[in-house]
Structures are given as C-alpha cells and as structure tokens.
Amino acid sequence: PWLDRPTIGDATESAIIKFFQPIEDIQTVRWAHPLVRSPDGSLAKLPFNSTNKFSLRIVEYELPDSHYCIFLKGAPEIVVSFCNRILARGTVEPFEDDWKLKFKETSSKMSKGGERVLAFAKLHLPKDQFPPYSPFICVSKDKLNFPLSNFTLIGLISLRDPPRDAVPFSVLKCQSAGIKVVMITGDHPTTAVAIARQCNIIKDKTNEELEEEDRLSEEEAMRVCKAIVIHGRMLAKISDLRDGGNILKGWLSKPQVVFARTTPAQKLQIVMAAQELGHIAAVTGDGVNDSPAIKRANIGIAMGITGSDAAKDAADMVLLSDDFSAIVIGVEEGRKIFDNIKKTIVYILSSNIPELIPFLVFVIAQVPLPLSAVLVLCIDIGTDMLPAVSFSYEDAELDIMTRSPRTKLDHLVTRRLLVFVYAQQGMIQTLGGFMSYFVIMSDFGFSFWDLFGLVRIASILPANGDVFDIEMPGLGNTNVFCQEGELFSRDDSEPRTIDWDGLKDNRIDLRMFYLRCDEKGNIMPRFDWNICNITQLSSVSNAPICYTTEALRYAQSGFFYAIVMCQWSNILACKTRKLSFASQGLTNFFMIFSIFFETTLMLMIAFIQPFNHVFGARDCLTMHFGLHALP
C-alpha cells in the first residue's frame, strides 16, 4: 500500500521516499531527527539548484560529541568533493584512491545504464563549535556559517526513470518531419547519453566515445563526430571567449546534440544560439529555472502535471499529460490544419477566374454575357460552400510527417499557390465553361465569330405577330424597309439593341432583327446563322429556343453546370497536395455529402421551374449539361 500512497515532491524525491519507507518508517525518522530552526524561524536547509547541484539539511542528531548532523545529497562528482571519509561495511574509513576508483566505476556503471545517480554524505558537527540553539545561516552556498568539508560518504542511489514507450517513436517521427530534437539536461553526461540513446536522439558514437575508443584528441573528436555531448563546464568556458557564440552554433549544427549538467542561464544561451541560426526553437520544461528559456523560445512548452506555476505562466503551451508524444501530435495537427486551410483557399479561389473572365469577355468583346451575376452568387454562396467547409474535416495526409518544416516565408497564400489557382485550376474551369457556352450557342443557331460585338448592334424590332420567312421581304420583319442603304422602321421607332439580360425580347426570332441592306436595297441577314436542329422549347417562354435570347439563358446555365462539374474534380485535386488520390482515399464523409449537396443544388436550379425563374437558369439537354467541361 505504501507504494501507492501519494507523495509531495518531484519524481526523484518520491522515489527516494518509497525506497526508504520499507526500511524504516519515514515519519518516525523525521520525528526523531527534526529539522533545526534558526532564531529567525527559518528551517536550516539549502534547497537543490542547478548551479550548486546539491541540497543539504541540518537536523537534531544527539551523539556524545555532537548535537547536529548535516545531511548532503546531490550530484556524485559534487558530493564526493566534500568528502574525506567513507562509510564502508558499518565502519568509517579514509576515502582514499582505491575507494575513489570504486566510487567512480560504480557511478559510471549506473549512469551508463541510463540511471540517475545521487550521492549521499553526512557530517556530525562538533558540539564545542555548535552548542545547542546554534544559529545556522543557509541563505546560499557562499554565506554558510558551517563547514562544507570532511563529510563522510554514505553511498549512492540510482533511480531508473525510463522514457515513456511512445517517446522513442515520437522522436523518430520528429526527425522524419525535419525537426531536430536536442536534449538539455542537468543529469550527468553519461546518464544523458544513455537516455538519449533510448529515445533515439543519439544513434552514432559521441565525441567522448571517439576519444575513448578511437584514441582521438578532444578537438578532433568534436570535429568529426555526428553525435556531440557538451558538458555545462564547456559552455561556461566558451562564454568568456570572443567567438564563443560561433563555437556554440557549431555544436548545435551537429546532427545529434546533447547538453548535460547545464544551468538555467546556459539553457537560455543555447536557445538564443539556435534562434540566431534561423531555427524556430520549441523548449520544454517544468521547473522555475526553465522559465527564462521557455519564455525566450519561439514556442514555450510547460508540463501540466509536474510543471511549476512559473513555467506555466512563461509557456505558450501546457501539456496536460506531461507526454512528449503530445508535442508530436500537436505538430501533426498543426500541419494538418495549415494544409486544410490552404486547400480551402485553393478550392474557393479557383472558381474566381471562371467567374471573372466571362465578365471581361462581355465588356471587351461585347459577346452576350456568358455567366450571369445571379449564377455567380449560386456558385459562391451555394454550390461551393459545403465543399469548402468539408476540408476542415479532412484527415492528415499520409506523408505529412515526412515533409520538411515550412520556412518563415512560406505563407498561406504564396506565388506558387496563386499560379496553381489562377493559371491552372482557374483556366481549366474557364475553358470548360466557355466550351459549354459556345457549343450551346452554336447548337441554337449562333456561330462563334458572330457572337463577338453582338450585344452592341442596334436594329429594328419586328412587328408583333411577325414570323421568320426567308422568302418574304425583310425575312418576315414587316416593320423594316431599306432607304439609301440604311434600315428604317415603318412605325417610326428608333433602332435599339436587344435586351439580352431580361425577358422582354425572349420571344423574338433574332434572324428578323439582325438585318442589313445590300447595294440593291434588298434586306439581307447580317450573319450566316448556323442550322438549328434542336426543337426544344423554353421552359419559361414556352417558345422555340433557336435564334432567341433564350439561347443565352441555356448557354449561361451550361457555363454554370460546367463550373460545378469542374469543381467535382477540383475538390479531389485539392484533397491531397502531393500524394495521389488513390493512396489517400475518400474517407471524409462530409466531403462526400458536400459533393452530393452541390450536385443536388445544381439539379434543383436546372430542373425545378420556380428555381428557373429565380436564378435565370434553364433545363439544358443532357448533351448540353456541362459535359463539354468533363474532359
């Protein structure tokens, strides 16, 4: 049960408590040897920090020659520097070279196993120098009023804190995504390297291993190695050099990097050097000492469970699970969101060109407007809405975590995107729309070249009841006659242009309108009309479509249907940026529904008569229903 009891403190303190508890009840020991209080009421203890790398406590410990005992805990190389004796087999012996060698070998063996090693020592203070109620000052290491020497080394404890199962795979995933993972720790370099190997941060021989195994010099090993391990004292050494910053940048440029026994200031120094190299630095941490580096980083990440309030306040992101793999999931999710927004932009903008060019052609070439403003709105706020939204439900592409990170200049809308949208996708849809437009107009009697300039030609309207007849004068237009090579009306009406946009002239056979006078004063057709073999009647005027303005309504509808059909292929083209559609598949149910929705809306606009009146669309024949855009 004691293993499951909650503890207050970090993982290291909790592990030590649970290790000691079955040996002797910890509360009993605390009551027997309470912490000493100074006259000002403060406890006589010096907390651990990354600069000192040890902590100490002074407790009441009655012996014949002592009232107080100092207990010391910390990094082995630091604690051993305060010791001149060792507790071995229940007796205190001088801490001589053979013991120092055994100590070093044992500590190194534990560290190489990826274990965190702590050394423990004690010093009984002589009662003649420290009588009862002696005041102890523990403000800092430099202001202690008791000695930090002649300690007795008690022993070593190693703590195994293996990385979570998902961490090694998450690191590999980061590396495949072009993200470099650098370890910065306060642990011993040997421990740091062992853990880094377990996490896949280090795979090759380190500079220290090259020195030891290949007998290379320190400088040569650091130059040729792919995996470099930097001790905090090396960072302290270069900080005073003029080119120390460049040296640090050189270390950071290595493929595999581990910093060990670092201080908070050095961690901040490393982050700043990474940023100067042009990297986007994300820093994780949980302690107060990590706060400066977390705040300085481009993305500061704090632990939600073990993290201090200072670290959380400085961070941009808090990991609620304290799991490194959550960062990788966040990167993947961020890339997916960026991708999906970009796909949405491409899809929406691609229909701008087939909406704009018809208007430009109408203004410049004076052809009957190929796409009405109402049908443009049907595309923008009708058929395109749900497909554009469906990209937000799109899963990440299979290769999303194998791409290199974006550069700072890679924005949502780039030159490459605009070229793809306007010069490729937009032009394909425009050509499909115009193909439908010109084919439908041709099938209803209007030849390709005669459409240019057609809307600005003014002429004489036929009288009510006039019917086209090639054999009759005026081709059946009884309201027109020729005089001095010009057309005049018999009812003195002025020549005017045809109302292509409205329904006022939709029953007029335009072969009786577009006329001219020849040299002999005969009335002749202005154009060489195509033969119209389609006997379809308009669903609105209930009159033949051939040679009337209703042909334009059908051509505009065909243009509209062609754009919608092009958007079918466009949504599939935008679905993946680099992979083929076959590899990604169509598992986005909302996208399937959106394609069904836009198709249903198009069919409703085409075949439901009230919609015909509202939107100005028509029920095109199957051969005119945007099929020219499919190739």
Structure notes:
The chain is α/β, with parallel strands linked by helices and 631 residues long. Strands 1-2-3-6-7-4-5 form a 7-stranded mixed β-sheet. A hairpin with a 2-residue loop joins strand 4 (83-88) and strand 5. Helix 4 (97-112) runs parallel beside helix 6 (189-198), helix 7 crosses helix 8 and helix 16 runs parallel beside helix 19. The protein starts with 10 loop residues before the first helix and ends in a 16-residue tail after the last helix.
Count the E strands: 19
- Helix fraction, binned, reads 40-55%
Can you list the strand order of the major beta sheet? 1-2-3-6-7-4-5
Q: Which structural class do you get from the secondary structure elements?
A: alpha/beta
Question: What is the secondary structure topology, with strand pairs?
Answer:
Layout: H1 11-20, H2 26-32, E1 45-46, E2 54-63, E3 66-74, H3 76-79, E4 83-88, E5 91-94, H4 97-112, E6 115-126, E7 151-160, H5 166-176, E8 183-184, H6 189-198, H7 207-213, H8 218-224, E9 227-231, H9 232-238, H10 244-252, E10 256-260, H11 264-276, E11 282-285, H12 291-296, E12 299-303, H13 309-314, E13 317-319, H14 324-350, H15 352-365, H16 373-383, H17 385-390, H18 415-443, E14 458-459, E15 480-483, E16 486-489, E17 496-497, E18 515-517, E19 523-525, H19 550-575, H20 581-584, H21 589-607, H22 609-615
Parallel strand pairs: 4-7, 8-10, 9-10, 11-12, 12-13
Antiparallel strand pairs: 1-2, 2-3, 3-6, 4-5, 6-7, 14-17, 15-16, 18-19
Helix pairs in contact: 4-6, 7-8, 10-11, 14-18, 14-19, 15-18, 16-19, 18-19, 19-21, 21-22
